[in-house]
Amino acid sequence: MNRRTFLSVSAGATLAACSQSPAPEAPRPPNIIWIMADDLGWAHLGSYGQTEIRTPRLDALAQQSLRFTNAYAGCTVCAPSRSSLMTGLHTGHTPVRGNSGGLPLPAGAVTVAETLRQAGYATGCFGKWGLGGEGTEGVPNRQGFDEFLGPLHQIPHHEFTVPAEDFDAYAGKYQEQPFIREDRGFVVQPQPAAAFAGMVTRLDRQVGALLDKLEALGLAENTVVFFTSDNGSVEFPPIANAFHGTGVFRGFKTDLYEGGIRVPMLVRWPGKVTPGVSDYPWAFYDFLPTAAEIAGAEPPPGLDGQSILPTLLGQGQEPPALLYWEAGPARAVRLGDWKAIRPGPDAPIELYDLAHDPGETTDVAAQHADLVAGAEKILNAQHVDPPQLVEPGWP
Q1: Which helix (H) or strand (E) holds 261?
Q2: How many whole angstroms separate alpha carbon 45 and alpha carbon 264?
Q3: Does domain 3-321 fall into CATH 3.40.50.2300?
Q4: Which of 262, 317, 322, 343 has the lowest tally of Cβ within 10 angstroms?
Q5: Left (φ > 0), alpha (ψ -120 to 50) or beta: where does 234 sit?
Q6: Reduced to 3 states, what is the DSSP secondary structure of residue 277?
Q7: Residues 321-333 pLDDT 10s
């Protein structure tokens, strides 16, 4: 392989990039692979405390990686989380804010793929896209990707179909409730918990196969691998009750509580990133500037994210001043260990001390009026109306 590569892979999508080899005397920038599972909760991996679902290859990857305990998705649902990842902008600024499906990235968006391609990388995305359908400016080949394979829309990827070899390992073990969405054309799954567990174990095996291929090709030492999930775990009772995928955290996918946005995050770069555990807080929109710095590329101006490369290299850096999210009318901001949430436009702001209350069980807004007032200003200031309307009924 004579070009550096950036790949994005997800159970929804994988991103990857590769670039033209520099002059022999120049150090070769690494390949970059971003692997993103779909609806995988913070605690669905053994390395984050899971005991029911078998994830041996991802647990081994965690031992070789810097494992983050305070990493966040771009949003609490799929499409806006991906939009934040691609653009380096939080959900108060990124173009796609809704999960209706089909809302495209506009032509003017500058993605991580475009940024790396301008630095000579070959780019590929494999899996669910969800940021623009056929005939729009949002399709991957108009957003910086040389190669794409996967569904453009969000619906066809649905995770409750799993090959028998993986399903059978978990069948009959859990209290089940059939999953039926006839209005969406989904097939009935009589054992959704077993199906979910089987799919996660299958994902684990496939990630292992990818890592094995890197070794076989002699590319592992010069490849940065990120593994994460696009948002928190689903609330569907059989899955939530069987696997407790949000861990100690409150909420699920669609919520701006920690269970909806805090995600597993593993970063492996042999010889560069020292394996261990980090509580450094960061979010998907930090990936674009991080990838740009790794690649020696120039990031676009006006990003909300910052490079976390110093943290990856063990050099230390100041935590971000704030982390911000929107989900429809709801907004949230993390300021150090404080987390402020406004569940709706007319709802009072809730305040939580994540250092002492990571499960967000006790709203302390009444005891900290000054912090609430400051958070309210930030929640208002960080929002810019999106360039396109969110479809009715979101999410």
Answers
A1: helix 258-261
A2: 8
A3: no
A4: 317
A5: beta
A6: strand
A7: 999 999 999 999 9
